[in-house]
Amino acid sequence: MAQAGLVGGALTVNWCLEVLTDFLKDLNEVQRNAVIATKGPVMVLAGAGSGKTRVITYRIAYLINNEGIAPGNILALTFTNKAAGEMRHRVDTLLHKGSSSGLWIGTFHSVFARLLRNYIDLIGYDSNFSIFDSDDSKSLIRQSMGELNISVDAVPVNTVQGIISRAKNSFILPAEFHSNASDYNQQKASQIYELYTRKLKENNALDFDDLLIKPIELFNARPEILAELQDSFRYIMIDEYQDTNKAQYLVAKMLGAKHRNVFVVGDDAQSIYSWRGADISNILNFQDDYHDALTFKLVENYRSTGTILKAANSVISRNQRQIKKELISHRNEGEPLTLIEAYNERNEAEKVGEHIRTMRLKQDYEYRSFAIFYRTNAQSRVLEDIMRQHKIPYKIFGSVSFYKRKEIKDAVAYLRFILNERDGESLLRIINFPPRKIGDVSIGKLKEFAEENGISFYDAIRRAEEGGFQARLVTALGSFSTVIEALKDLAESGTVYDVLSELFNLTSIPLLLQAENTPESLARNENLQELLSMARDFSDHNPDNGSLGDFLENISLASDYEETQDSDNYVSLMTVHAAKGLEFPVVFVTGLEERLFPLHCYEPDELEEERRLFYVAVTRAQEKIFLSWAQSRYQYGQQHYCLKSMFIGEIDASIIQTESGVLLSDRPEKEKPVGSGLSSSKGYQPKMATPSSPFAAADKSNLSKSGLRAGTMVHHALFGPGTVLDVQGTGAKQKVRITFRNTGEKTLMVQYANLKIQS
DNA sequence: TAACTGCTCTTTTTT
DNA sequence: AGAGCAGTTA
What integer pLDDT is reported at residue A702 of this predicted model? Predict the structure, then answer.
């Protein structure tokens, strides 16, 4: 614009108009209005597939190109790295290449980690702080509980971690938590929270939640920093606003307070992170904070067929708490949904694989057109097995993360410790890895020595010869600290790659794994080599080769690791949570069973969130949806009998067909669901259908003299109507697990329960 | 100190 | 079913 301005006024106007029309012609009217409303607070309620990402990216491009805003003045916050990368990429495509450099696009966590590197020394941390993942933080909580003599058996560490995390996400600091702690348990939790916080600081470490709340503490302590940042971030955009928690809400509000150009996009119907402290009222109450906020509603859906939207609308309409809006289709009706009914999870996976194969051959779909969703990560395993067996290329997103593997965590712990020698968690990981004969006893002695002399644990190691330890231990500690010191020196001058390869040299970890020569150890070694090549990539693709700190930050905050694939044509496997924001031509939603999806429904609110999750799954699909459930499934190493998910019944039976193409609405009532699925399945001959199969055995064991079996509808005098989930044992001791419509799940003794069977 | 054994607990979902 | 842990033994 500035250049055009030099040439002359008329030209400027023409050029601008051209760019303007160019830009905005791809948008509908509401989208366009949202894009050009650049001043003041704006909220966009964007239904699934209504072009939400498009609006944000066009707005960024419009700000840069048409309003001449410097990219550095724009802050765009997302929830996943994937979304951030996608957004940056799209802005780059929209403008000319490189336009996005200088833009602040990232997840809340990564953006604030970056900011904290610059300012955290002002609130008493060193800028080389470590970022603790949830395992690290769990271990620190366990330590804290130990020191407070609180038994881990009495209160599980996971529970405590959840309580602390929820407090942090609601920006309740230890002092406030303490003064609100009414009962005994809360007082205990408060003590742990306080000690845990202190320990984090001793370790010069932040946990994930700290990345959100430390900025708030910083802004409160140093208003001048806040003022500085408010002026840098003149335009703030937040994606998936329905999933922000209190801390995120606060930090965004603070940053936007001066210029008030806060632009939030969200969909209350897709709020699926309340368990992480996400507060749907942030979006519902946006206008209370900004009375002059403009609101736009995007309901035109460009993604899915009419049938898919009909299904989605009908599902979400059952929720009480929602802003009513129906998505309007811009595509043809499309095909009905297909219901897959299977014996068990293996059979389910087989059928999914079979459908992928035939659709690819007969209908010209590519592997990349398909996505398979599941509710829990544990379900991915069978699917993965079957895909591999059938030679279908696939990729699992965000499963057991690459970075959570032991060997990777060990290597990363070295790197973390080199950078931050107060990081005790990392030190404990590596001090005896590879084995140096430094066990718990020696560590205890060292700790004592450190405390007596008021020095740090690592200083105690460095000064081990003064401690009067056994010569063998002193030698071991000496060789350990030699390695660390050498690596520290190298970290000053060399690249991340240099440090990592020298680490492998000095410790011989790869050699040890090779020598072990088991399939597992060789796989571990391969993972380490993969890490090494990632380090090389990182050095190559970053200015000044990138710092070790940045490398570690990427690793800590990366959710999924992009495994190098031979091609990019593969079937995608992921949890429904991970699927948010994505779209695929063909979608399989698997495991649609009561107690799996929906997972647990103790509270109506929880059921509504599960339903929103199902809504997210359905609205990912562009052309075709398969819904599948299995009659039995292994969970916790035990076989369970399943009931069809209520969600299937919430879709009009006239738009669902069986695998043989019969609409559910036309199917005779009497026909057994699984029976019909079986008789019509051609390709797969179930191995399980032999008398010795678990399936057949189930029929025997589950049928009892009482006439109760999984699926039986019963009535209890006190608890009312319910459905039998499973039957355990026989005779007088027979117990039955029932999910009651009103009171939830109960296990009852058959002989006392006095159940009436409903026909 | 490390290897072995039997026990418990897990599974929501993610940064 | 599998991982992780405490307690025991070599």
Answer: 34
C-alpha triplet A369, A375, A381: angle, nearest 5°: 75
Q: Which of A398-412, A464-478, A654-668 has the lowest mean pLDDT?
A: A398-412
CA distance linking residue A530 with residue A550, whole number of Å:
18
Q: What are phi and psi of A670, to 5 degrees?
A: -65, -30
Tokens of A441: 């006893």
Residue A497 to residue A416: CA distance in whole angstroms = 14
Residue whose C-alpha is closest to residue A412's, from A520, A538, A540: A538
Q: Is the CB of A545 under 7 A from strand B?
A: no
CB atoms within 10 A of CB A633: 23
Residue A304 DSSP one-character state: S
Rounded to 10°, the helix A471-493/A440-453 angle is: 70
Peptide bond into A598 cis (omega under 30): yes
Distance A146 CA to B12 C1' (A): 28
Structure token pair of residue A558? 């990366």
CB of A438 closer than 8 Å to CB of A473: yes
pLDDT, average across residues A194-208 = 91
Catalytic residues of A: 52-53, 239-240, 270, 620
Integer angstrom CA distances of residue A522 from A14, A513, A517, A525, A617? 64, 6, 6, 5, 37
Q: Which of A582, A620, A612 is nearest to A322 (CA)?
A: A612
Q: Specify the amino acid at residue A76.
A: A
User: Protein A572 CA to nucleic acid B13 C1', in Å?
Assistant: 18
Non-local (6+) Cβ contacts of A219 within 8 A are A225, A226, A229, A251, A254
Tell me the CA–C1' distance in angstroms for A146 and C6: 15
The answer to whether A518 CB is within 7 Å of strand C is no
The beta strand positions in A89-234, using DSSP E, are: 104-107, 130-132, 205-207
A22-63 tens-digit pLDDT? 778 889 999 999 999 999 999 999 999 999 889 999 999 999
DSSP state of A734: -
Q: Do residues A74 and A233 touch, judged by C-beta distance below 8 A?
A: yes
Question: Cα(A467)–Cα(A451) distance, rounded to whole angstroms?
Answer: 12
Distance in angstroms (rounded) separating the CA atoms of residues A474 and A468: 9
CB A382 under 7 Å to nucleic chain B: no
